[in-house]
UniProtKB/TrEMBL annotation:
The protein, known as: TSN36 protein
UniProt keyword Membrane, yes or no: yes
InterPro entries on file: Tetraspanin/Peripherin, Tetraspanin_EC2_sf
Membrane topology: Multi-pass membrane protein
PANTHER family: TETRASPANIN, TETRASPANIN-36
Source species of the chain: Ciconia maguari
Membrane-spanning ranges: 28-54, 61-85
């Protein structure tokens, strides 16, 4: 169980690194850190529980049970925090994404992140391709198109033009 929890926590943190430009609130990783800490404690406590079982110590097994209950409460707390703050994280991510999309120029590091995000998630814009119509980049190019990272992978000659939305 400790190995599984460690994997989940590490996976969340590793995934966060790809999208950290979109999250202003650094506390968004708090549940993942709590899960990793709980996994480490569970491993140590599991070893103590095994030793208490081999020695058939009632005191050791009672202590083991109490510690397991504390860990369970910590896990439930992490779940509740994640559930309660999911809307806040969603709102923060959307607000930050809008500001990053506003700064898009096609060459900056933020632009590279936006292109990567759109290709990985197979999306265009924050909600849809029309989000690009309000950006400074869209107005400055004057060609009525979105970045090529919005194009569907199966479209070979996609130009990103808004008059061909089936290609986006």
């Amino acid at each position: 169980a400790a190995a599984g929890l460690s994997y989940v926590g590490a996976y969340v943190i590793n995934t966060y690194k790809s999208y950290d430009n979109f999250l202003q609130d650094k506390y968004a990783l708090l549940p993942a850190v709590i899960i990793i800490c709980v996994a480490v404690v569970m491993f140590v406590i599991g070893l103590i529980g095994c030793c208490a079982t081999f020695r058939e110590s009632r005191v050791g097994l009672g202590l083991f049970l109490a510690i397991i209950l504390v860990i369970f409460i910590a896990e439930v707390s992490a779940f509740v925090l994640g559930f309660v703050y999911r809307e806040k994280v969603k709102t923060d991510v959307q607000g930050t994404m809008h500001s990053v999309f506003e700064k898009y120029d096609g060459r900056s590091p933020e632009s590279t992140v936006v292109n990567y995000l759109q290709k990985q998630l197979h999306c265009c814009g924050v909600k849809n391709y029309s989000d690009w119509t309000t950006t400074q980049w869209f107005n400055s190019t004057g060609n009525n198109s979105v970045p090529l990272s919005c194009c569907r992978e199966d479209m070979k000659n996609c130009t990103g033009r808004l008059d061909q939305p089936q290609e986006l």
